Amino acid sequence: FIDTDYFYDLVDLSSALDPDNAYILMFGRGWVLNSGMAGKLIQVLEHAYARDPEWRTIFDAGWIALYSLRDYEKARSFLKTAMKDPAAPSFVGGIYTYSFYADRKYEAAIAQISEQIKSTDDHTLQTHLEKQLHWYADLLKLNRAAMAYRERLGRDIGSLGELVDAGFMDAIPEDRLGKGFVWD
Question: For 43, 53, 93, 180, which has the most beta carbons within 10 A of its beta carbon?
């Protein structure tokens, strides 16, 4: 059991003592147990970002929105802002793209990765992004085939192999990222 009012008081106190603390998340993340606490921490991070717009602060707000609140739209808003900061590392874009996966918006992920490929001259990054692009495209095909299976046969698949057996796909695509596709 934790006293959430005490948590809010501690977050407010740490913010008051160090109003430009871009790393308040380090204190709060270990304490976040519910959506109210996560929301409070996001508010504090938004205020810290308004005082000192640094990519890490708004990224942390996006991270909490994504993983603690599962609020993908809010997370993307924060992450997109963080990505605009020239000091932001490339992984911010990767987490922004992941938010589309978490939200099952595969077409949007494909569009985002395509834009990232166009905007970089880094060959290693382009190669990695192209693998991700193909992975998302294959995931989209699998998802569409599973939906067609359900629509036509009136039930969900039990395994990906059923898509091939029932003629909805010629073969299960190879996972270009090496994890292997599984039906969830």
Answer: 93
